[in-house]
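User: I'm preparing a small set of examples for a lab meeting where we compare how different chains pack in three dimensions. I only have the primary sequence for this one, and I'd like the structure in token form so I can line it up with the others. Please keep the answer compact; I'll paste it straight into my notes.
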Amino acid sequence: MDDRTLEALGLDRAPREHPLIYPGAWPVESGLLHRDRFLRLRSRPNRRLAQWLVESPPGGFGDSEQGQTVPLDYALMRSNEPLVGERFPVLSVGSNACPAQLRHKMEGLGVSSTIPMVKIRVTGIGVGVSAYVSPLGYVSSSPFHAPGVTRDLFVTWFDATQLEIVDASEGVFTPGGEYDRVLLPGAEFPMELPSGELLGSVYAYVHRYGVLHDGSGAPRPHDGERQLLTDLLSESRRLREWFGDTAEEFSSRARGDVRLCEKGTRLFQDEERTTRSGLEHHVPAAPATTVYDDIRPVNALAAGFQRVARTPDVYDQRGSGVVRMSAGLSADLGHPRQVIVQNMQIPQARHERLGALASVVVAQDLDPEDRSTVQVDRSLRVCVGVEPGEAVQVRAAALPRTRHHWQDVLFGPLNYVTCRIQDGDRASAEHEVCLLDGLTLELIGVSSGDAIVLEGFPDENGIVPVLELKAIQTSDEVQERRKDLHGGDMTSRYPSSLDALGTYPDLPWAFLDRRLWSGLGVEGQWLATVRIRCSRTYQLKKELREMVFLLGIAFIGVVTVLNDTTWRLISLVVLVLLTGTLVSMRLRSRLTQRAKRIGGAMRRP
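Assistant: Understood. Below is the structure token output for the 605-residue chain.
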């Protein structure tokens, strides 16, 4: 692996320390700024940035080795950094595309400088000269509207803290500050990533004082700081009187002298050397807070596909993975109660039938006519390895038996755990059981040896196969042995969700003998998933066995005390009702996972 340190790449000098090199050295390719290195970042066709591959540094990311490529989100997670979807894409036309400048800004305030930086082709944006003299000793760049002009720029993905620091450095929230942060729409300014994604929108810093013009009224291009300052000084006698005759003198006098810089900035206005950037109408009343996961690509969507969006954070899933969709899309699918979600980024040669079963919620807050968007919860996105903004196909599915409302009243709503199927371990080979870890058993409210229900992949008629099996708690030895074996894409015997789907950490594992795969409709599907819940019939019988014994003892006591037959019958009815109530309460308490707010009702959207 070649040396990726900033020093070795010639990216270690910051304009804040060397003003005349502004805007500083830019990388020649996309990468991840991580500590003192700029790691290569390789795009994946038609995939969102979280799925791009980054080279591991010395010491690796987690279990990765130096030079090994891993998904960007995995690298960020193992570095304890915010993930890509939680970040803000910012178009950089000046020193914010210089890794050393970014590192200087962040680390000077004790903040991590781990930042993805992506080279992007932008149409409609030019790089002009801000009408502002900076106390840092230079005149910075500023974007302007340049219809028809296409150029390569960088987009930096800042987390919330990093964005706050950059906002402060640009004076976004300061009265009389230099810049406004705007959200430029991709429909007006086409922005293409190397992956082919057309970014739906991107943040940019637009100068409040406008940009300098070239004498004809058109924005003046920023061609490098030394040449720019030399030209500006040659064009203004008063500027030379205040800042000197050379670029070096200008930078030296301006650096740290706020009052002199303010005079220079006013002089640009007084000499009528400024013009509008053409981007002022994008300035909002307050800066937007939209993160990358909520920025929808503007690429055309194939017929019959939907674009993934996140479910609201406060949404109550009621114990199962859900897909929220519009009333129009639900009608088109036949008003199903369940659907199968499939990732359309997975090549057909790699088991395109991989999908996840989900419950359907018709969302009243979505446009009824929006048939191109589905909100998919995080657990389901992990199931099929899809990112918000990517394409999926949703088709109707149905369970073989209708769920009755009275069962929910008696037992509480069904509580599911979605698990990734693993080939059965040798210890359980040829046994029709399901091996699960202890935490999964507890989440669905059962004990080792209890019966559970598995819901698989629907057949060509949309009917979901369902099996009832005995659940056995697996051992740590089985889990560790499989972890040592699994790895690689879907062509491997034991593929890894990280390698094949770019998801980490993975879902809980369910070990099943291969004979049972066919019964669940997942034969030939590596990394297939199933929904697992308790068998409520089994749990009812289990509870009744205990309660009927206690009921018998109690009734014998009543018979010995009461001599009247009528009162004996009344007492029996009361005991039966009391037993039924206790059974229901015990089952609801054990089989449902519902938070309760003490002292008031809990709001559930």
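A couple of notes for your slides: The two ends are 51 Å apart (CA to CA). DSSP finds 17 helices and 24 strands in the chain.

User: Perfect, thanks.
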